[in-house]
Specification:
With 93 residues, the protein is mainly β. It has one helix and five strands, in the order ββαβββ. It starts with 9 loop residues before the first strand and ends in a 17-residue tail after the last strand.
Length: 93
């Protein structure tokens, strides 16, 4: 089956302010880089997932605080202007 060729293509990037919360437990003091490395060891698919490395450092993904102010950037082909289906009220009259 041949792939359909579309006339328009849009690339959409949605960005929001989400905050992921972790707990890292260690018997030794950690550097900034060691802490950042720990974050990549634990799965964020489920809350309270934990990972204990060979070094005994335990990293737990606690949860995500989801942002509510997403920003959308659309690029690619020209976007069609929407018809306005409402009346504009001029407050200066």
């Amino acid at each position: 089956m041949e792939d359909k060729q579309y006339k328009y293509t849009y690339h959409v990037e949605e960005t929001s302010q989400d905050t992921r919360n972790y707990t890292i437990e260690s018997d030794v003091q950690l550097t900034h880089d060691e802490i950042v490395d720990c974050l990549g060891n634990v799965s964020i698919n489920n809350e309270k997932n934990s990972f204990v490395g060979e070094d005994g450092i335990k990293t737990t993904f606690e949860d995500t605080d989801w942002g509510d102010d997403s920003q959308i950037d659309i690029s690619g082909d020209e976007i069609k202007e929407a018809k306005e289906d409402y009346e504009v009220i001029d407050d200066e009259q």
